Amino acid sequence: MSDIAAPPAALDHPFVKTLARLVRAADSHGVWERKSDAEVLAEFVVCREERRSRPIIDDPDPDIIDRVEAFYGAVGLAVEQATGRLASPILKLNHEGFGRVLLTAGRLVVVSKTLRDVHRFGFDDFAALAAAGGKMVDEATAMIGRFPEVADL
Q1: What is the pLDDT of residues 129-141, one digit of tens each?
Q2: I need a labelling partner for 34 at 20 to 30 A (CA). Which of 55, 95, 124, 150 fits?
Q3: How far apart are alpha carbons 101 and 42 in whole angstroms?
């Protein structure tokens, strides 16, 4: 894991705030109550060397799968906040860490992404996390804007 210090601009990004809220919501025992967003989201930051040191084919750890689900869940929540339409993620992974994620709004698929090497999931820093999540939210929101009648079904 990388150092948990993060530039305030990255931590103030709307997607990162949404992800932190979603991760904190899963904390039923209050363990993360007094921790900063950087501490709560530290496991999403994995340096490039650490990702490369992991084998190409490996069974993903349940904690990594939880992070992948949280990331795409936060994308769905951010899309819902931006558009007012429920956006639900569907994640299907095999035991080797390959699969697909779909994010739907009504009958519209707003995100379709193939996942590979899920056991290597992570971002270089909080800015990269914010950029990846923000880009996905923007693309999904634009898709709903193009086809609102399908998103309403």
Answers
A1: 999 999 999 999 9
A2: 124
A3: 23
Q: Strand 87-93: give its sheet, edge to edge.
A: 87-93, 99-105, 108-115
Cα dist from 133 to 14, 61, 140, whole Å: 9, 22, 11
Task: Please indicate, yes or no, if residue 1 is contained in any of the structural domains.
Answer: no
Mean pLDDT of 2-28: 82
The CA distance from 126 to 148, in Å, is 32
Whole-structure pTM value = 0.88
Q: What would the pLDDT profile of 84-124 be if each residue is shown by its tens digit?
A: 999 999 999 988 888 999 999 999 999 999 998 888 888 99
| Residue 3 maps to a domain | no
Q: Is the dihedral of CA 11, 14, 15, 20 positive or negative?
A: positive
Determine the pLDDT at residue 4.
54
3-state secondary structure 67-100: HHHHHHHHHHHHHHHHHCCCEEEEEEECCCCCEE
CATH no. for residue 22?
1.10.3100.20
